[in-house]
Amino acid sequence: MFKAKVKAEVIKNIIDIASPLVTEAKFNITPKGISLRAVDPAHVAMVDVDVKASSFEEYKADEMEMGIDLDKLGGIMKLANANDTVSLEYDEDTNKLIIRIGNLVRKMGLLDTAGMPDPKIPNLNLPAKITIKASELFQGVRASEAVSDHISLTATKDSFELFAEGDTDVVNLKLPKDLLLELNTPEKCRSLFSIDYFSNMVKPVKGEEPITMHLGNDNPIKLEFDFTEKNGHAVYLLAPRIESE
Amino acid sequence: MIEVAVNPSVDDALRFIERFHVKQADKTLLVLVGDCMVDYRGRARSFLDWGERVVMVKQDGTVLVHRSTLREPVNWQPSGSKTTFKVEKGLLVLRSHHVKPAERMKVVFREVLLIAVSILFDSAQLAISGMESDMVNEIISNPDVIEEGCRVCKREKHVKSGVIDLFCYDKNHVPVVIEVKRSVATISSVHQLRVYVSDVKKDVEEARVRGILCAPRVPDMVKKLLSEYGLEWREVERRVVLPDEFQKSLKDFL
Hints:
- The structure holds two protein chains of two kinds.
- Chain A is α+β, with helices and mostly antiparallel strands.
- Chain A is built from four helices and 18 strands.
- In chain A, helix 1 packs antiparallel against helix 2 and helix 3 packs antiparallel against helix 4 (195-202).
- Chain B is α+β, with helices and mostly antiparallel strands.
- Chain B contains four helices and 13 strands.
- Chain B has helices at residues 10-20, 135-141, 187-203, 220-228, and strands at 2-6, 29-41, 45-57, 63-66, 75-77, 82-88, 91-98, 103-118, 151-159, 162-169, 175-180, 210-215, 232-235.
- Chain B is elongated, with a radius of gyration of 24 Å.
């Protein structure tokens, strides 16, 4: 059983967070809330999203799984304004999700979850923790996108640095500790990442909201943030690139 | 080398094409720009009235007719087609003939604006990265993903109702028809496979023929229908190539 009412924005958020990596996903539904974990087909990045039942206006659910085509659900959610309340109900007889937006009823066929894997979370050694305003990180990422296809992120005891170098141009964003919300590292940590992936992970976070990064040396980055008034939590993992020289 | 004729008369156009292209058609690329009409008969029948277009005859016999917009050619002939040129009733006529499947295309020019003939050397391989590798090629290079002892006999085998993706034999020399789907297997792919299997059965006189539907994901409903028809399925994982050798995978950190 699954029956819920929620602001359209919450569902839109989940789709914005997961859809850069996967086109379909398995939603795990429990009485406590909804979560999904997925990796992109190349296994370069992973997303883990959790939305507590408290972010719903109404929420009643047993444990179940729903296989959802994210493009399709995203299309349906475009029919609603961010503040509209959307009602969701699982219809067991037809294996469809019934979505009500105002007087509009949309029944969406669900995907078979049998083949959808449960990705394993890798073992990570990420000593550095950096918390930064999304807008600031995004500015650096946008500047880097224009010059290169990868960026290096470096954390030292007193600063966080983003660096991208293309054939002719260079981007450097260096933020001293006092401009960051948090910076904590016992040692210098540096890893290199693909901008395509990284920028997709920063985009879902709005303006002044904080993003926390956990960084290691040539290790994946763990990037996490809250959404919908801290009732939702998203974690991304992104595998590093190795230096080409 | 490149030879160009601008605004030639129809007779000059034919002479030019015969001199520079026809003698070594398999080595030269011909581009014709002009006002033409296209008539095609083969898998279907089509007729395209007068209009200004670009016609290209490639070194492998491929013929493409492009209009002034859109990515795809409006008419085309596959690789291996034979092209001939003639002047008939004051018009330049290009005929392209492909044997199997039988396809004929006739392009009639009433005005030629430009002809260019060139020999292009191009031996580079196209490198596409970060893509799903082609599932059919994957199976051909490793037929054991279907089952042990499976032997691929022909790719794209033509049968009465269409084209079989892969025609194989299993270790007991039973013919196996394999239909490959890139994403989710659907009910209609079951019917497609069923028709191909029955086509092959006629070809080999009531012998046992197996049919296997191969897809990254086969939903339960499709599995059920397949078993009802005595067909099989394989869930073949989509292998994805990493963007490049420098990108690590999360699997490296498990």
